[in-house]
Amino acid sequence: MSLGENLYRIRKERKLSQETVADALGVSFQAVSAWERDEYTPDTNHLIRLAEYLDVSLSSLIEDQDEFFPVSQNIYDWEHMKTFVKTTAKVYNLTNTQNALEFACKAHQGQTRKNSDIPYIYHPLNLACHCLAMDIREDTVIAACLLHDVIEDCGVTAGELPVDEEVRELVLLLTREKDHGFDRDEIMRKYIGKISGNPKASLIKLLDRCNNITTMAWGLSRKRIYRTIRETETYILPLLDVIKQVPEYNNAAWLLKYQIVSTLDIYKRLL
Fold first, then answer.
1. Are 88 and 100 in contact (CB under 8 A)?
2. Which domains does the chain have, with CATH numbers?
3. What are 103-121's pLDDT values in tens digits?
4. Which of 166, 203, 209 is closest to 188 using CA atoms?
5. How far apart are CA 95 and CA 109, in angstroms?
6. Measuring CA to CA, how many Å separate 47 from each of 11, 21, 32, 144?
């Protein structure tokens, strides 16, 4: 397929009009129409902005591709994950987890993952299931995985959480203040500095980032992906040294390092 054919296909998949794309790029809809008819090629700046706006790689726009693979936004059904966590919590008598599960589902009700229609609860459930899959069944850790975003995103206070004080402290450590244009690096240093003093919070943050980077291709612009890669390498990966202090987390450290680093390397090669 030519660049014009690729642009037309991707625009139609996104259910966007030529006018909408044109407005986003600050050009006329006639220009977009001409690009799609291969009458002329967008300049480099417009190509980059097109890729960012459509959330695709440059290669998917400019390369002659006859085959395209379907993309899955979620691998597991969130209701099945909820059942798995609920059943496991009951079998192992994880009281905090049982309380946190229902609270998190209600708190995140109606919220969706960025640029998708996937219920937001998929994300904290993914963290909890990831933890359980690595044979970590600590009640406080699983419960905090489920609740890690409720204060930051749902207008909930720590005192409202139906869990013990240790879980509340973990959730507070994992709650990051909005940067609102302030020095993001300074905020990240303070935020990760607090987390790094607690191996359990560090484990959850690594799980959180592991899940987030696997979905950033369909949820973030190229600029945000670059920033996420840099911040992951600068602030998040050093937390592996923190969790290695706990012998029970050594296997998790090995797996998380492999998952995060290999995923980042894939992005770097394709961007």
1. no
2. 3-62 (1.10.260.40), 78-270 (1.10.3210.10)
3. 999 999 999 987 778 899 9
4. 209
5. 22
6. 14, 12, 11, 42
